[in-house]
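Reviewers of the previous submission asked for a worked example of the structure-prediction workflow described in the proposal, so we include one complete record here. The input consisted solely of the amino acid sequence. No template or homolog information was supplied to the procedure at any stage.
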Amino acid sequence: MGLKVLPPTLRKNNRYLTVEIKTGSPIVKDDLVSIVWDACVRFQGELNTSNFNLWVMRFYEFENDESYYGYKAIIRCQRGYVEEVRSSLALVNMYKWDRISITTIGLSGTIKASHKYI
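From that input alone, the workflow returned the following structure tokens.
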């Protein structure tokens, strides 16, 4: 007998943040995951961060200039914690001794709708 799927009424409601990342050195998706988790744990604490249901869904490289590297990503979080995640990401300014800027450019209820910001 297989596992039963939860009905929609019992599932957690998610929101998808589209973020723009500008940094002085190249990063990969694993680096972004550690940046997001580290930022949320530092600002909100472990107990509150465990409720966020954070996940980096997509990661795109979109612009490479001589002065910086540009990326966009879609980050999933739980519905009631969007402002906490946004404030935690806004406070990030250094990663591996290099400057980094993370800006939220969109918020949506589905991954498909969040692609319009990319």
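Strands lie at 14-23, 55-64, 69-78, 94-95, 98-108. We consider this example representative of the routine output the project will generate in years two and three.
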